[in-house]
Prior knowledge:
By secondary structure, this protein is mainly beta. The chain contains 1 helix and 52 strands.
Amino acid sequence: xxxxxxxxxxxxxxxxxxxxxxxxxxxxxxxxxxxxxxxxxxxxxxxxxxxxxxxxxxxxxxxxxxxxxxxxxxxxxxxxxxxxxxxxxxxxxxxxxxxxxxxxxxxxxxxxxxxxxxxxxxxxxxxxxxxxxxxxxxxxxxxxxxxxxxxxxxxxxxxxxxxxxxxxxxxxxxxxxxxxxxxxxxxxxxxxxxxxxxxxxxxxxxxxxxxxxxxxxxxxxxxxxxxxxxxxxxxxxxxxxxxxxxxxxxxxxxxxxxxxxxxxxxxxxxxxxxxxxxxxxxxxxxxxxxxxxxxxxxxxxxxxxxxxxxxxxxxxxxxxxxxxxxxxxxxxxxxxxxxxxxxxxxxxxxxxxxxxxxxxxxxxxxxxxxxxxxxxxxxxxxxxxxxxxxxxxxxxxxxxxxxxxxxxxxxxxxxxxxxxxxxxxxxxxxxxxxxxxxxxxxxxxxxxxxxxxxxxxxxxxxxxxxxxxxxxxxxxxxxxxxxxxxxxxxxxxxxxxxxxxxxxxxxxxxxxxxxxxxxxxxxxxxxxxxxxxxxxxxxxxxxxxxxxxxxxxxxxxxxxxxxxxxxxxxxxxxxxxxxxxxxxxxxxxxxxxxxxxxxxxxxxxxxxxxxxxxxxxxxxxxxxxxxxxxxxxxxxxxxxxxxxxxxxxxxxxxxxxxxxxxxxxxxxxxxxxxxxxxxxxxxxxxxxxxxxxxxxxxxxxxxxxxxxxxxxxxxxxxxxxxxxxxxxxxxxxxxxxxxxxxxxxxxxxxxxxxxxxxxxxx
Length: 762
């Protein structure tokens, strides 16, 4: 298996985690199911002022999935799954749209990207004031907040810190929590809304108190709330919204604890109200009177300005706040809303307010990063039953160095049984044949001498299951493929799988809504075709593995996948028939059959076949050739003649040749490889271990003798070297003899003349 988790190949264990309930299903392949997990990538829906028509119902916005969102009177803001930040809902040249003031006065009606950064992670907004965090922990702000804060028409970093983890805004204020659990604030401080113990504005971030355990913060124009890592709730700002008494020790302009509970897990604010959820899944609200409290407030024991429980449900998991309304999710993935609804921001199809939580829709997943704001709501959720997804994977293993193919494989899905009854198989939805093309775009993994190319296809794309039950299919690979090409071979997988899909009715949704709750895969045959009795449950899904090999027979100029030649130069004698010895080892690629063996075809200088030598795979074999001869190596099972599988390993070593220097010109895959020639005579020379590649693979050995042939003298190859030495010595002796005779003759002539002179004198 390749590491393609984003394509959902690997098996997953889906944990349907909630506050009080934990249910798990085990899947083979990735399954998008109705889920109550918090966070993650989700489609985006909007309702209320500025939302797509109809504004009083949640309507999907934009394509793809999103990870964070925020709304305010000034517009909508969201971050998509690729990390890009978008804005819409106000004039393009409005400062909060983040377009650098270069946009037009026309309203941006679709999500419009802000800048080019792709590392945004969180966004918050109130009024025309927008702040956002990057994945690097940087804090940016923009918009026209007023209250003394400078207007920026594009994101501008606040300070240089890179450790921010949570943010919140009022129309004139900014709050941020860093990794050390410190709370910082800036902006207008009217009414002590910054929690700094005074009413003085701060135009730069100022630390709030000295606590180091802040975990979450939420704010409005008039007050703010925060949770500590220990589950305590604290508030400051407008006294009527704090849910607590104000004392000398904890005045309204400084954080003061709300009650004594230490089990709060989520908290949000509206214009003058707060809502919080505890570990028991209970929902509580406090603040000023109004429908957004979601509960009666005429009871002395349950006043508006103290936390009061909303209803009796104990399965709430996430709450969001707008200007005058709240939205919340429960463990059943239901979205509920209450409060003001003058712009249809509750998404209930009307503009009537609700004074108690009212069911808006059944969802199948949601993200707690989605928050309402102003007279509008922006939520990240999945509104329909998720489509099933089960991926078929194709792995194509080939020798490293093999050119990447372009082959399309086909997979079939035989309807097998419904509720384990094969007689009902015809009632299953038909799954069409699926194809996977392995080419240059496929994932590649190199492991030594083997390269694996991989890709996937979603078996269930577009398939709907009309009722509940267990749907079973048999999945196989067709034993043919398109695009295999010449000189290539594919060994197909014989694997066979049973895919079981478990579908049930979602009892929490109105009408007949069916969801896939699990998928399992059983291997009936392995890749080699061996029947598995009983079938084996597999955790890595449906995977077929094939082998692909391609052979080469060289080039027109250099025929033969691998050739060896011999040339001799120099010396007193003719070495044209002198044999030179080589040790040759050719080893099959691991993807070739174990029975693979090779041959060496030896050709004379005239080009005729002189001999054939068998070369068992992986075994060193002795071959002797003379000047002008050529050896072509081949796999006898392949055509055309002289072919070898790309990836085959070879080593050619010439044994030490007396009185000769050895050199080799080596080409592998058309590339020249430098092998230093021998510096000494009588020394072996090797190509080293090499792999056959597509193109020219040649080893041309040349042996050179340092002895030059004397001019005018030629001795046949059969004459011993000693005769040459003797002949040379004889010639030297003859020259000495001639010189000696001449000297004697000259001596005799001198004596005669001397005697003649004496006679005349007498």
